[in-house]
Amino acid sequence: MLERFFATDSNLLFTVARLVLGIVMLPHGAQKLLGWFGGHGWSSTLGFFSSQGIPTIIGVLVILAESFGALGLILGFCTKLSAFGIGITMLGAAIFQRQNGFFMNWFGNQGGEGYEYHVLAMGLAFILAFSGGGAYSLDGILSEKLK
């Protein structure tokens, strides 16, 4: 069971997908968890989610997925779980943003951002959740040790 969880191959394309998604997601997680990059931190983020009708446990899972999940992707550790968490988070965010339309708000003429970014992140997360972390991942090392 654990061997399948950590299983991956040495495909560099999966490595690129893992690093790109992790690097893009980490600042979003740091905003919510630590208040970095103009974010509001743990308490304020949970308060915002609560004010939007999002249960606290879902808010906690979002913060953990975007911060520790992103770190997991960068390191290639628990890639499938990390990608799954980020993918579900992006699905929720896309549903939450759907009233703003598909496109990002490049020219400031929408009420908010669209969900195109979320769809891209979900696509990368889907690939990684099934493929694993690729080359240069801690999962690959653990998988070899478990064999």
From TrEMBL:
Pfam families: DoxX (PF07681). One of its GO terms (cellular component) is plasma membrane. The keyword rRNA-binding does not apply. It is a multi-pass membrane protein. It is found in: Cell membrane. Keywords: Cell membrane, Membrane, Transmembrane, Transmembrane helix. InterPro entries: DoxX, DoxX-like_oxidoreductase. The chain crosses the membrane at residues 12-30, 42-64, 71-97, 117-138. Belongs to the DoxX family. This is DoxX family protein. It comes from Leptospira saintgironsiae. The lineage of its organism: Bacteria, Pseudomonadati, Spirochaetota, Spirochaetia, Leptospirales.
